[in-house]
Amino acid sequence: MSLLELENVSAAYGPVTVLHGVSVNVERGGATGILGANGAGKTTTLRAISGLVKASGRIVFDGKSILGLRPDQVASLGIAHVPEGRGTLSRLTVRDNLLLGAYLRRDRRAITADLDYCLDLFPQLRTRIRSTGAALSGGEQQMLAIGRAFMSRPRLLLLDEASLGLAPSTSANVYSAVGRLRVESGLSMLVVEQNAALAFTLVDNATVLETGRNVLSGTRTELMGMDSIRKAYLGG
Ligand SMILES: Nc1ncnc2c1ncn2[C@@H]1O[C@H](COP(=O)(O)OP(=O)(O)OP(=O)(O)O)[C@@H](O)[C@H]1O
Ligand SMILES: [Mg+2]
User: I want to staple 48 with a disulfide (CB 3.0 to 4.6 A). Which of 34, 55, 120, 181 is the partner?
Assistant: First the structure.
């Protein structure tokens, strides 16, 4: 049984339906990518999982339907969402942002150890531990958002366009840290990314969305071998 299963999921903003029966799976310990152009419905798919937009169809996490749950209920099941635009708190320090990720936890020793792990994963954050969120670069904010999600010790990470607006070398750093997180903590993930080449450094399989529908799905190797994917998403 997969950790997360979306089957035939539709979602709308007011009268406008933007997801028309999307299906995607994340295996336990696996990483799945959602690729696609602007407006394809990638963010909305993550929002449907998190309960941030009303959806229909089947959304099952660890064998139980999570359709219709509130965002706080979804989060408390162990699904951490790193949204597009990062969502870190600009007035709080890096340390407080990270600790905020752990606010539902009571295992204080493990929290301290996880904080240390996070700062090893993202050494740039260690040097800025007392800076406020507002004082960070875009890349550092992205690292902080991922670190904060990790601090909740989730079972599934939803990551939305972590590379957006970052220099290529910074995106590569962020993705390699997330890859390390995956290997070292066995964290399962669903990764939305327009930069397919970057996504393929992390995910095992992916689906491509176009105007709210799956148009292609497969393993990384299958997708990378397809001419249409190479032309549209991998620069030839
Ligand atoms: N809050 C909203 N209200 C109304 N329509 C929205 C809203 N958010 C997104 N949409 C529309 O829903 C569709 C899917 O948007 P979505 O944000 O899911 O796409 P995306 O694949 O994440 O795109 P991008 O790569 O630009 O982030 C688009 O047509 C978009 O205009
Ligand atoms: Mg988006």
Answer: 55
Positive or negative, the CA dihedral 81, 52, 49, 160 is negative
Mutate to test the pocket of ligand 1, among 10, 13, 22, 158 (most ligand atoms within 8 A of CB): 13
In this structure, what token pair is assigned to residue 184?
Answer: 């070292």
Burial 85-100 (b: 16+ CB within 10 A, else e): ebbbeeebbbbebbbe
Rounded to the nearest angstrom, the distance between the alpha carbon of 150 and the centre of ligand 1 is: 26
Q: Tell the burial category of 179 from Cβ atoms under 10 Å away from its Cβ (0-12, 13-18, 19+).
A: middle
Report the alpha-carbon distance of residue 103 to residue 100 in Å, rounded. Answer: 5
Domains in the chain: boundaries: 4-87+154-233
* Beta-sheet pairing, 4-13 with 55-61: antiparallel
The CATH number of 4-87+154-233 is 3.40.50.300
pLDDT per position as a tens digit, 20-64: 999 999 999 999 999 999 999 999 999 999 999 999 999 999 999
Pocket test for ligand 1, best of 43, 82, 161 (most atoms within 8 A of CB): 43
Query: Ligand 1: which residues within 6 Å by Cβ?
Result: 13, 18, 36, 38-44, 84, 194
The per-residue pLDDT for range 147-199, each reduced to its tens digit, is 999 999 999 999 999 999 999 999 999 999 999 999 999 999 999 999 999 99
Q: Give the residue carrying structure tokens 């995910």.
A: 203
Closest ligand 1 atom to 45 CA: 18
